[in-house]
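re: ur question from earlier - yeah i can do the single chain one, its not a big deal. heres the input i used so u can compare w yours
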Amino acid sequence: MDAKRAILEIIAQMPNFFSWTYKETIGHGHYQTRVYSQDDIAGHVATTLLDKLGDKGCQIVSLPPVETDEYGCRTVRVPIIGQGWAYGEIRISDNADQLVIVDIPSRLPVDSAPAVAAALLATHAAAREYRSHWERGD
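and the output i got, formated as tokens:
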């Protein structure tokens, strides 16, 4: 399932999305309607999406920053479980058309997979938005 469809299905299944009508049991039993603010709705959506997207085969990932190293290369450092003394890296080539995987073992600890995946996505996004000075007309 693609992410857009998963998000659509989760939001569509949320009960009492904009308001909630309930019977007040104290007093004469009047019905009360609570209308939620935009912040209430946003908080509800965010919490529900984070909880339920995994059930639909999707995840929300925070992307690490793409930094420029001492050699001028754009790179993301990746901590590898069991290698606390060294980092792996995902580097963007000078032409921004290739990613270079450096010091990440071919037998990767399972717990390191999310960090490597996030680093790949971050460098992919940074490489896609890159335009050379020839393309910019500088």
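The longest strand covers residues 74-79. not sure if urs matches, ping me
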